[in-house]
Design brief:
By secondary structure, this protein is an alpha/beta fold. It has two domains: 14-156, Response regulator (Rossmann fold, 3-Layer(aba) Sandwich), CATH 3.40.50; 184-309, Methyltransferase, Methionine Synthase (B12-binding Domains), Chain A, domain 1 (Orthogonal Bundle), CATH 1.10.1240. The protein is built from eleven helices and five strands; from the N terminus they run βαβαβαβαβααααααα. A five-stranded parallel sheet has the order 2-1-3-4-5, sandwiched between helices. Helix 5 (133-183) runs parallel beside helix 10, helix 7 crosses helix 9 and helix 9 (250-267) runs antiparallel to helix 10 (273-301).
């Protein structure tokens, strides 16, 4: 065993190129003082990286050191007669619920123990009889890196979730403000008048927006949010013309818009709610501008001849 875990003098040290961490603080948990001394000596003979090896020679001491100390990695020696590494790691994991960058070191072949190691949260299993000091260093480095990547991924996921929540709250406030804007009597009056009144073209505030147009607007909004304006200009113009032909007011258009927007925002939960609201605001602004232009066109077309001449 002492001969197998040897320094690899024939291979150049990757530490010169920064591939291995310059130093690692490692906790070695074992019931065998002989194995602890041997591992410490093996690491000392290879200068690829500096490893500060600290020992815990009992399970109770190991749990205490894990709880109170801060280590880059943990090596647990699997000694079935004295220390079952898998039972120990299972107990540690159940106790604090956290994953530690851990490597299991034992005499059994890797193919027999690798899956068991993964199941208790260890990052790797290394067979003493088929490894070298340098390889063990690399395994430790990979275990640490894997643990850091998982932690970073979780942090980013939490940040993303928090950002979506803030966006959702901001979007909810904006929708509430828009609802209040549409309900305000003075606003309703100004929105309901898109141009000078004329008996043949005055919007009919009592006429409801047909379900077919509401469904069409929902499709437009979904496409606009996901794809952008793109080639929707002609469809928006046609839709606005249909609203004008039916005498739909700007206020009714806004009410329909808010109703549809709330539905679409709930369906597109994977997207930022603030982004959905921003895109929707652009769409309804485009629709309202076209609606105003349609009513102005109809008003001009229906002016008396003497007014046009004047």
């Amino acid at each position: 065993m002492l001969e197998t875990l040897r320094p690899d003098w024939k291979r150049p040290s990757a530490a010169r190129w920064g591939c291995l961490p310059p130093r690692m603080r490692v906790l070695f948990i074992t019931e065998s003082r002989r194995r602890a001394g041997w591992l410490n000596e093996a690491f000392a003979t290879d200068s690829a990286t500096e490893i500060q090896l600290e020992e815990a020679t009992s399970q109770a001491n190991g749990i205490e050191r894990i709880r109170d100390g801060l280590f880059d990695a943990i090596i647990v020696s699997h000694e079935p007669e004295q220390l079952d590494a898998f039972e120990f790691l299972g107990a540690v994991r159940a106790g604090n619920g956290e994953h530690q960058p851990t490597l299991v070191l034992g005499d059994s072949p890797e193919h027999e123990m690798r899956v068991l190691s993964y199941e208790v949260g260890a990052g790797a299993y290394v067979c003493i009889n088929h490894t070298s000091t340098r390889e063990l260093m690399w395994q430790l480095a990979r275990v640490i890196e894997h643990h850091e990547l998982i932690a970073e991924n979780r942090r980013l996921m939490m940040e993303h979730k928090h950002r979506l929540q803030l966006d959702h709250e901001e979007a909810t406030r904006l929708l509430e403000q828009q609802h209040e804007l549409v309900k305000n009597p003075e606003t309703l009056y100004s929105l309901g008048r898109t141009g000078p009144s004329h008996p043949r073209i005055t919007p009919c505030a009592g006429a409801p927006v047909p379900d077919s147009l509401t469904a069409h607007y929902k499709e437009l909004l979904q496409t606009y949010v996901i794809m952008g304006s793109g080639n929707l200009s002609s469809r928006i113009e046609i839709f606005s013309s249909q609203l004008a032909d039916l005498g739909i007011t700007a206020q009714q258009t806004m009410q329909m818009h808010l109703q549809v927007l709330e539905q679409v925002a709930n369906q597109l939960k994977s997207r930022s709610a603030r982004h959905v609201v921003n895109r929707a605001d652009l769409l309804v602004l485009d629709v309202l501008l076209h609606l105003c232009e349609e009513y102005q066109r109809l008003w001009r077309e229906n002016l008396p001849l003497d007014s046009q001449a004047a």
